[in-house]
Every structure is written in C-alpha cells, then in structure tokens.
Amino acid sequence: xxxxxxxxxxxxxxxxxxxxxxxxxxxxxxxxxxxxxxxxxxxxxxxxxxxxxxxxxxxxxxxxxxxxxxxxxxxxxxxxxxxxxxxxxxxxxxxxxxxxxxxxxxx
Length: 107
Ligand SMILES: Cc1cc2nc3c(=O)[nH]c(=O)nc-3n(C[C@H](O)[C@H](O)[C@H](O)COP(=O)(O)OP(=O)(O)OC[C@H]3O[C@@H](n4cnc5c(N)ncnc54)[C@H](O)[C@@H]3O)c2cc1C
Prior knowledge:
single chain; alpha+beta; two-stranded antiparallel ribbon; two-stranded antiparallel sheet; 2 helices; elongated; binds flavin-adenine dinucleotide
C-alpha cells in the first residue's frame, strides 16, 4: 500500500497493489477494503478507481527472447525487460542494472 500524500500526491489517497489475483473486481475491492480496515486500521475507505491490468509485465514464457543490454554502440539499457535470469521482477531489474554498471566500470 502506498500513501500518495507521503509521495507528493493528494492527501488521504492510498494506492493498493495486488498481484497475481484472479478474483473478480468487486470481490477484490471488498477484500482490499476489509484488509485495510483490519490490518492497517483504515476503516471506511472509499474506492476511487480500480485498475485490473493482466499485462502489467511481460509474460515470462519458455524460450522467450529478450533484448540484450547493449542496444547500440555506447548505449546500454537495463531494467526488467532486458535479458536476464529473472522474470519481470524488482530483483531482475536490479540485477540487470548492476550488470550494466559493472560492464561500464570495466575498461
Ligand atoms: C502491479 C504490479 C505488481 C508487481 N509486483 C511485484 C512484486 O511484488 N515483486 C517484484 O519483484 N516485482 C513486481 N512487479 C514487477 C516490478 O514492478 C518490475 O519488474 C520493476 O519495477 C521493473 O523495474 P524497471 O526499472 O525495469 O522498470 P519501471 O519500474 O517500470 O521503471 C521504468 C521507469 O521509466 C519511466 N519511463 C518510461 N518511459 C519513459 C520515457 N520515455 N521517458 C522518461 N521516463 C520514462 C517510467 O515512468 C518508470 O518510472 C510488479 C509490477 C506490477 C505492474
């Protein structure tokens, strides 16, 4: 859960993220509100918007070809999308970033 007010956004607006969930939208909203009430002490929240995105990250399918970090002479890309051992995760993005930084540090 992100408190948008503490991130420079509007006060009193919270953003909840749910991953890998197949629950119908209405049920999901109710579950999130219930959880906010019991676990975060935030009863009585009103949903503003619920986004259900089934393609928020690339699908990590067998044999998937992802672009290498070196995308042009003198230009390297990094992030979860470039080739690496992890699917679209924070860890994958960090590993790819570190690999690019190391390659630049090596003459
Ligand atoms: C709903 C959801 C839940 C997730 N949950 C998890 C989780 O629980 N654990 C986990 O490990 N991973 C999770 N992920 C995946 C994880 O968020 C990503 O793999 C990771 O953030 C990728 O990092 P990145 O730096 O490659 O890209 P991003 O974090 O996407 O960063 C790219 C940045 O570039 C900016 N940008 C794009 N285009 C431009 C442009 N033209 N000019 C300037 N800036 C630009 C974007 O605004 C963004 O800030 C989740 C993803 C989603 C969508």
